[in-house]
Amino acid sequence: MSSKEELALELTFPYSESPEFGTALEIAPGVKWLRMPLPMSLNHINLYLIADNEGWIVVDTGIRGQETSELWRKVFNQALEGKPVIKVICTHLHPDHTGQAGFLCQYWDAPLLMSYSEYYQACFINKMMGEKRSISHQAHYQKLGFSDSFLSSLVSGGSSFQPTEDDIPFPESFTRLVDGQVIQFGQYEWHIVTGNGHSPEHVCLYCPALRLLISGDQVLPIITSNVSIYPTEPEANPMKGWIESHQKLKAAIKDDVLVLPAHNKPFYGLHKRLDQLIAHHEDRMLILEENCTEPTVAIDLLPLLFERKLEGFTRIMAMGECMAHLHCLMDRKRIQRQLINGVYHFLSIDPTLSSRAKPGEHEDPDQLPELT
Fold first, then answer.
1. Mean pLDDT for the chain?
2. CA 305 to chain centre
3. Based on the domain organization, do 170 and 240 belong to the same domain?
4. Helix 238-252 / helix 270-290 crossing angle, nearest 10 deg
5. What is the tens place of the pLDDT at every residue in 2-27?
6. Same domain for 237 and 336?
7. Is residue 18 domain-shared with residue 78, that is, in the same domain?
8. Which residues have CB under 8 Å from 114's CB, separation 6+?
């Protein structure tokens, strides 16, 4: 049994089956669960509908493209009970969550609701994806140990997230959601709780009366969300925010909620899962610290965290996650960074450490973070 399967046994999954793509399953009064496909190993995203007096609120939208748009039209005909979509909420900026926002908002003349940071980051990402792919921050990756030839090989690669001429543009206006805000949808109050790390101001929706938490990518039951350093903010410390966000959620939300995540299935055991996620990242950091007893280049640390072969942009993503752990260790004064011959080397500050981890001995291959 893999480590992720063992962790999942500590949670409770009340639904043995998931809704088929383009269909909806009611899981609480006025709350429906649907799924849309994704063109990668993580082959689905969960989306949700919340009933309001005059229509429906959509929570997250799916990836751009005709396939998802057609599945949405099927949902319109079969799941909305003759009522319109009146609001579209995106929990955060990533393209599998925002890709159909333009289509849905235009089709229904509905406003987009997001947090401030997520909306403007989404605008930036959509602009970048519309341009020809390039490694615009090559110096950043060179300092981490990537070769020029590897970086050059990525420039010609395409992406399933890139927009096409047929895609409806991302909405040019939005209504801001803020932490602590309470919104009335029908007869129920939904509380906005934000987190960060995976993205800058990720929105979760908590309904105490229904005992539901729509968690987006902030809490997933099996896989771990990607927490990365990007060349646009090379000195960031997202792992600190990620761990603090988990502690915040545990304090703010009762453990009896049914968690409605963006990937995998709804589950009970919020506090247990938050503890698991914190422990997972603390363990990754200890592994890195214990394997930097000599000055070590970041790229040489990747096999300690990921057993599967890393190629293309998957390798870039894995490096982003590795750097997030290293920056958190630097903030905690447990690792120091030195620039030697143009490449960063990392060295543990505690001289008594000895390595306990060898490549491939500790990480389930399915734990590679997805771009969720």
1. 90
2. 18
3. yes
4. 160
5. 566 567 779 999 999 999 999 999 99
6. no
7. yes
8. 89, 90, 92, 93, 122, 174, 175, 176, 177, 203
Domain range enclosing 314: 289-367
Q: Which amino acid is at 181?
A: Q
Average pLDDT rounded to a whole number, residues 155-175: 74
Does residue 210 share a domain with residue 73? yes
Task: Write the single-letter amino acid at 365.
Answer: P
Q: In this structure, what DSSP letter does residue 1 have?
A: -
* Higher per-residue confidence, 2 vs 227: 227
Q: Which of 235, 253, 280 is the last residue in one of the domains?
A: 280
Residue 151 lies in a domain: no
What letter does residue 169 receive in the DSSP assignment? P
CA distance 225 to 219: 8
Q: Which 3 state secondary structure label does DSSP give 276?
A: helix
Residue 206 in 3-state DSSP?
strand
Q: Model-level pTM? A: 0.91
Residues 52 and 181 reside in one and the same domain: yes
Q: Is 367's pLDDT higher than 50?
A: no
Closest-CA residue to 10 (of 271, 250, 242, 243): 271
Instruction: Copy the structure tokens of residue 356.
Output: 């306990």
What are 44's two structure tokens?
């689905």
Q: Which residues of 127-138 are buried (b: 16+ CB within 10 A; e: fewer)?
A: eeeeeeeebeee
* Dist CA 205 CA 187 (whole Å): 15
Residue among 142, 147, 94 at smallest CA distance from 372: 94
DSSP classification of residue 52? -
pLDDT digits (tens, 9 = 90+) for 102-125: 999 999 999 999 999 999 999 988
